[in-house]
Amino acid sequence: MAQSVNITELNLPQLEMLKNQLDQMYVPGKLHDVEHVLIDVGTGYYVEKTAEDAKDFFKRKIDFLTKQMEKIQPALQEKHAMKQAVMEMMSQKIQQLTTLGAAQATAKA
Question: NCBIfam families this protein is in (predicted)?
Answer without folding.
Answer: prefoldin subunit alpha (TIGR00293)
